[in-house]
Amino acid sequence: MPAEFFSEISNHATPPTYRFFDGAGWKESTSAATSDVTSPIQGEILGRLQVVTHQEIDQALANAQKAQPQWESTPLHQRVKIMHLSADWIRHFRGYLASLLIKEIGKTDLEAQGEIDRTADLIDYFADEVQSIRGETLDSDNFPGFDKGRLAMIERVAYGVVVAIAPFNYPVNLAASKIVPALLMGNSVVFKPPTQGGISGVHLTRLFEKAGVPQGVLSCITGGGGDIGDYLVGHSGVDMLAFTGGSDTGVHIAKQAGMVPMLFECGGNNPAVVLPDADLALAAREIVRGAFSYSGQRCTAIKYVLTTESILNQLLPQVLNNIKEMVRMGDPRSPETKLVGPVISPSAAEKILQAISESVGLGAKIEIGGKRKDALVEPTVLTHVKSQMPVVAHEIFGPLVSFIQVASFDEASEIINSSNYGLQASIFTRDEGTGINFAKNLKVGSVQINGSPQRGPDHFPFLGVKHSGVGVQGVRYSLEAMSRLKPVVLNKPQ
Ligand code: G3P
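Above: the input record for the complex with SN-glycerol-3-phosphate. Below: its predicted structure, written as C-alpha cells.
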C-alpha cells in the first residue's frame, strides 16, 4: 500500500529522487539539481530532493494565491473534515512514517512513533478547536465621547499565503503544527521542509493531498536554505511566515522578509535551577531526560544547570548515576539504544566537540563523555562552566549538559536573564510558592516548576522571547496567529 499511495512522489530509482509539489502536480525541477539526504546512522544516501528554481517558487506562490479565496470560502466543516482525514492517513501509515524518521533524522523507534502519534492527535485537536474560534461585536459607546452610533463586527480572516518552514528535529510534527492551523484558518500554504527531514516532509504533503486539500492550496518546495531561502521569504507573494529553526537563521529571515506577520520558534538554551529544598532525585531524573532526549537536539532541551556548591555536590553523582541507567548511546534502530543516537550529521557532531574543547580550554571540566565517533557524540557532562563559555553562550544541539556553580540564586537569575535566548527555564523546589516567585523574575517564554522544559501538551502556549522566538504557538494560539482580525464597522447615525 505505501508504494502505491506514494508512487507519484519519486522516480523509484535507488536511491529515489523525490519530486516537489507545486500545488498542481509532482514535478522534477528544471534546475536538474538535487540535494542528497544522508542518513546520520551510517552515512547512506536515502534519497535526493529537487532544488527548485525561482520560477518554480513563483509558480507555487501563484498557485497558492489563486486557490486561496476559494479555499477560505469553503465551509469550515469541510476543511475540518479534510484535516481529520489527514490525521487518519497519518495513523494508517504510522509504522512507515516512523521508519522514515528513524533513517532520515536518527530518532529512536519510540521517539519516531511518538512524533507520528502526536502529529495525528495534534491535527485532530486543531480541527476540533477551530470550531470554537469566533468573532465578536463591539459597541462604540463604551469609549468616552461616543454614543451608540457604531457597531464593529469583528471576524477572523486568513492572511492569504503562509510560508511554513520546518526544522529537521520534528520534520513531520513541526510541519503539521504550521500547515494545519494555517489551512484551517483559510490560508493557502507553501511548505518548505528541511533538507534532512525533507523525505518525511514530501510524504506528509502527499497525505494532505490525498486527504483532499484542493489543488494550489498546499505546495511543497524543496532545496537548501542557502539556495532558495532568501528568494522564498522575501517574495512579494508571501503574506505570513511561520518558521522553526536556529536563531541566526530566524534573524536573517526576519530581515529578508520585511514587514510580514511572523510566527517564529528559534533557538533555546534552557537552564534548570535547583534550589536548596529541591527533590534532588526528581531533579536529577528530569535533568537527564531534559538534556539527552533525542540526543539533545530539541530547542527545549536543558542545556545548563545552576545551583550552589553544596547542592551540586549532592546532585552531580545522582545525575551521573541516572545517565548510566537512562541513557545508552547507539544505533537508533536497536532496542538497546536509549535517548542518545547519532546527531544529525558528522559535521554537526564536530561542531559540538569544538564547543566542548573551547570551553575546556577556558576552564570547564569533562565529568563524562566529550568524544565522538562519526555522528555519535557521547552523552557529555561538564562542570566548572561559566556562562560566557561557548557551551552556554550558544545553543549546542547535542547530548551535552553544563553545570554552573553560583554563589546565590540571584546570580542564577542574572545569568538566565543576561542570555540572548529566552525559551524556557526549569526550577526545582519542594515549595511551589517559591518556584512561582522565582519564575516571575525570569525573562523566558515559559517556566516549568519541577519538570524539564517541553513544548507539550500541545494546547499550552509555547513561545520564546529575545532570540528564541516571535509570537505564540499552541493549538488555539497558533490558530489565532495564522489569522487576523477584520472589523467591519456599521456607522448608524443616531
Ligand atoms: O525543538 C523543537 C521544540 O519545539 C521541542 O519540542 O516537544 O521536544 O519539547 P518538544
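Notes for the reader.
The mean pLDDT is 97.
Residues 164 and 191 are 5 Å apart (CA to CA).
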